[in-house]
Each structure stands twice: as C-alpha cells, then as structure tokens.
Amino acid sequence: MAKRNDVRPIIKLRSTAGTGFTYVTRKNRRNDPDRLTMRKYDPKVRQHVDFREER
C-alpha cells in the first residue's frame, strides 16, 4: 500500500540572505497550513538567518 503524502508534503526552505542556499524538509499541512518560516544556519554567510518556504 502506498504512503499518503497529502498530509506531509516535501518543501524547500530558501535563505532570506540571498545566497540561494536551501534546506529540504517535510511539514505537516494540518498544523502549518501557511508558509513556514524557520531560523536555520546558512553556511555561505556563516550565521543563522530566516529560511522561508518556497513553492
């Protein structure tokens, strides 16, 4: 039986620092229906910045 990906889609998180660095993760669509924003490490600028979900 196939796994349902409706609830947890794969998303890309792109850095707001303009470096083009991305993280790939999954999110729960029921808990976070809006675009996700996380503070993560960007190795190109060597600091923590906001990463926003792109579609």
Helical content band:
under 10%
| Succession of helices and strands | EEEE
Largest sheet: 4 strands, antiparallel
- Please count the beta strands (DSSP E, at least 2 residues each): 4
How many discrete domains? 1
CATH topology tier name = Rubrerythrin, domain 2
**Tally of contiguous helical segments:** 0
Radius of gyration: 13 Å
Unreliable stretches: none
Structural class: mainly beta
Query: Given this structure, which CATH class is correct?
Result: Mainly Beta
The name of the CATH superfamily reads Ribosomal protein L33
Strand content: over 45%
Describe the 3D structure.
With 55 residues, the protein is mainly beta. It is built from no helices and four strands. The protein has one domain: Single Sheet (Rubrerythrin, domain 2), CATH 2.20.28.120. Strands 2-1-4-3 form a four-stranded antiparallel beta sheet, with no helix packed on it. Keywords: Ribonucleoprotein, Ribosomal protein. Belongs to the bacterial ribosomal protein bL33 family. It comes from Kribbella alba. This is Large ribosomal subunit protein bL33.
